[in-house]
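question for whoever is on the cluster today: can someone run the full assembly for these? two chains, 609 residues total. i dont have access anymore since they changed the login thing
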Amino acid sequence: MAISESTAPAAHADTTGVRPPVLPARSGRRSGRRGAVGWLFIFPFLVVFLAFLVAPLAYAGYLSLYTKGLATGTTFAGIDNYTRAFTDPSFLKGLWLVVRFSLVVIPLQMGVALVAALVLDEVTGRLARFARLTIFLPYAIPAVLGALMWGFLYSPSFGPIEQISSLFNVQAPFLLSQGNIFYGLLNVVTWQWSGYYMVIIYAALKSIDTSIYEAARIDGAGSRQVALRIKVPMVSSAFALILVFALIGTLQFFSEPQILGPIANGSVTPDFTPNIYAFNLAFTYAQFNYASAISFSLGFVVFVAVAVFMVVTRKKGSIFT
Amino acid sequence: MSIATQRPRPRHVGAKLLLLAMVCYFLIPVWWLIVASTKNAQGLFSGSGALWFNGFHLFANLKDLFTYNNGEYLRWLGNSVLYAATGGVGSTIISVLAGYGFAKFRFRGRNLIFAMVLGSVMVPLTALVIPTFVLMSNAGLTDTVWAVILPSLLSPFGVYLMRVYTAASVPDELLDAARIDGAGELRTFLRVALPLMRPAVVTVLLLSVVATWNNYFLPLTMLSSSKLYPLTVGIGLWEQLASSNNGGGHSVWSLIIVGSLVSIIPLVIAFLTLQKYWQGGLAVGSLK
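^ ran it for u. tokens below:
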């Protein structure tokens, strides 16, 4: 969308003759010089892009094809690290966790964000303005601290959940126990990100021409019908965009479980998510080659997941089409 | 906003109750943090009323926070500011230049490079952390501020956002007029295009400052000496300290709590004061 949109006005300007008439030869030379200026503008980005994206990616790919043994030294291993990764129960278990987590948390976040945005689009006044800022607030709080705060709230020694339950003589569930940590994390992530998605959907809603609503009302549509039949379809491209970002982010799950680990009594294992596993392989066991293969495999899974998502929800106006 | 003067209609009661419930949910952790920051270690663990005040020790806690372990918290705060300012401002400048270049110049390879940029939005950035660490370590840059600042300069999404916004809001005719008047390319960019790009610039700046300020995985990986830590990694270190010695850890827990409160204040203020910019700017990337 971005490519076609930005080349269109340029072509338009050429045909309408906004530029002063110049000799063809001069114009050719001039656009060549202008092209060089374009390169200058993107040059700093290209350097960073090559140094911190292309190079690490290529290097990870290279590392992942070798193994390093104490006795044997570094030897070429071909795809051995990958066959090992995709048969490694630790990696597969972590992968299954983040996939399961994504399948639950993304609809949950999107639901909260969409409902909040639709309500805020309808209701006005002081409460609505305050609510908009409050719901967005967690985005400005580092994920590490968000996880810590909820960890405190879950805590049996000074959290309110325990205190409220003890008023009713009930044993409070410890949301960081082995069986419950999935739900504990679900709550943290929903709290942290829903507001950010809400603001994006809300802004998209605000850009809709309100005369459409009037027309629908004249045709007898109620608020709910306007919301479901007009507003939701109109913001679907914003929705698709944030879904992709949510998917990419969630599959890379790292900070929240890593931070909750020390207070979760061993619920967060060293192979809890693929990223935590890769981190521990690299920095606890110094297995950089295998850690790279794990990172690469995770990257591959993310890429495939996003590609599948794009094909399934192929829509006009999605950023990648 | 003029709509604020409109009288609320009764049919919005349900919606308002829903909003109120949401406000409570999203505020509870922050409310708890504020309340807990005013308690001393004893009050924190006394087990009554975690959500209400019990004595007022905020200033004593702040004093402890800033003096604990030779004031290492202040050092981490300074590091966070340094990383967020250099990484955030640097990546914004790079994104603005590149977005303008992609949107307003036609050159060979432009579409190919931009397609690569879009594709790279899909590359999980954490997958890059380990190889980046090895490359940095070969260059002797790990455990220096550069190991955190340099990778933070990369922001493909910022470039995408700037390109879309520039294409839509900076007319070619205006740029051509400036060139005909004899302005050079740099001057045309600074004087004509840049003022029109301001909302998107503020948005990209906020997004990248937040990303750097909140980053945990990258500094955790790159840094080993605690005097270079940003707040996120430093507070994580305190947390490990506190949970590993349960007896003596009590006072560290109150440091963590008041330290968390202090560290979220700068970004909250930034978002509140700049809201008219980012609320519009965030929509840019998602609109048709």
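summary bc i know u wont read the tokens: Residues 1-30, 316-321 of chain A have pLDDT under 50 and may be disordered. Chain A has one domain: 84-312.
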